[in-house]
Structure formats: structure tokens, C-alpha cells
Amino acid sequence: MSAAARGDRAVGIDIGGSGIKGAPVDLARGEFAEDRVREPTPSPSTPEAVADVVAALAGRWPEGPLGVTFPAVIKDGVAMTAANVDKSWIGTDAAELLRARTGRTVHVVNDADAAGVAEARYGAAKGVRGVVVVTTLGTGIGTALLHDGVLVPNTELGHLEVDGHDAETRASDAVRDREDLSWKDWAKRLQRYYASLEALLQPDLFVVGGGVSKKSDKFLPLLELSTPIVPAQLLNSAGIVGAAALAAEDVAAASSQDQVRG
Length: 262
Ligand code: BGC
Known about the structure:
It is a single chain. The chain is an alpha/beta fold. It folds into two domains: 3-111, 2-Layer Sandwich (Nucleotidyltransferase, domain 5); 124-232, Nucleotidyltransferase, domain 5 (2-Layer Sandwich), CATH 3.30.420.40. It is 34% helix and 24% strand. The protein contains eight helices and 15 strands. Strands 1, 2, 3, 4, 5 and 8 form a six-stranded mixed sheet that branches. α2 crosses α3 and α4 packs across α8. The chain binds beta-D-glucopyranose.
């Protein structure tokens, strides 16, 4: 029996603003089972064009549950927003589009939610009880809210209004880059942001992901918060691993329902 058929492997694909990345995931370890493959995100990043790339990537690993991340609010597989992707995604049934293209059931999930689930199952939030807020600092700010490891989806707290601004337009990593902010100046903005989240949610832990979390020693020590704040552990594999894990959990839930129905 193959690993995928045994249920310890699933495929994750991460749709981002500049790249679409995929890999099969070893679900016991929360790691890539084979090398990750990256394709550039088509421009414009319309649903049809992106679906072509996802289908080509998924075809490399034809077995196992398939999970796909997308940087927007996803309700029942439908994209409800499009902050940093082509606006034609709004209202698109991404799960149905990708099912039609790949011939497989696809679990579509917000990118930060996928990263949060990966950190909760395998990374910095593993085994942590209480309220955990995972933030991804990238082009925008993505957030995942978990309670005792259970995800509350689509929190979109990167768009929290802080000092009269949409937080991600002041404190994302892309803004740090664009405005050429020093670590100290960027940390002042992060301080305002995380202090606001702390006041509203009283979390037990913050986990900071996104590519810049590799350099967390430059900015996390500058923050003064009551909540512990730690770097993500899965770094750039989190989206793929989380999407694969959620897809596998879907399949497991469906098969246990079938057993109950007999
Ligand atoms: C979007 C979120 C997404 C985040 C990170 C935000 O602009 O609204 O849905 O999770 O960017 O990509």
C-alpha cells in the first residue's frame, strides 16, 4: 500500500502573491516528504490562470488528500476577499474550480490559518493550551486564532485598525522593506500592533511567522508585551504543511461519518 493510501501523506499547495509552491507532506512528522516545487504566480493572478498552475503542480503528486492555501477569507471554499491578489477572485468558488481542474476534492484554506494549524500541530504552538495568535508578516499580515489547538478561521486581524490605519499597511514586512525601516523603527510599529492584539484578545502565546521570522532576533527582543512571543518553527513550510494536514483531517472526518452511517 502506498504512503498516501495509508493516510500518512497528503499534498499541500500554497498560493502566494509571487509564487505557488507545493510538496507532499509526511503527516507524522509535519515535514516535506519530497522537495518543494515552486512556480511563479501568473500575472494577472486570475482564478483561471492560478488554477492552471495549481493543477500542474498537483499532478506531480497524484495520490493523497490535497489542501491549498489562499491569501483571502475562505468560506466553504469560496474566496470572499482579495487584499493582495487579483480582485476577480472575490466570489470565486475556489474549491470547486480546483476540483474541476484537478479531478480531486480540494480543501481550500486561508494562508495564515494553514500556517497556524501547522504551528499548532507540529511547531511553536504544539501542545499549547488556551488562546494562541499566529501572525504571518509578509506582503500583508495574516492571522490565525487557535483555542486549545482548535482554529477559529478567517480572523483577518492584520486589518485591525491601529492608530487610524489598517495595521498591515503600517507593520507588514513588505512595508518595512518599501519604507526601508530600521529594525528599531519597524519594531515600534509592531509594538503598537501586538499591544492592540494583546488588549483585545488576552492571548497566552503569540507566534510570529512569515519569511522575516528567520530574523526574529532582530525585532522580537525589542517588543515589550505581557504575552510570550516566539518565532514560528516551520518557516516557509507552514502553509503547505497546514493545508495538507487539514485536507487529511477532512478525509478522515468524512470516512468516520461514512462508518457511522454504515
Ligand atoms: C489578507 C489575509 C491573508 C494575509 C496574508 C491579508 O491581506 O486579508 O486573508 O491571510 O494578507 O497573506
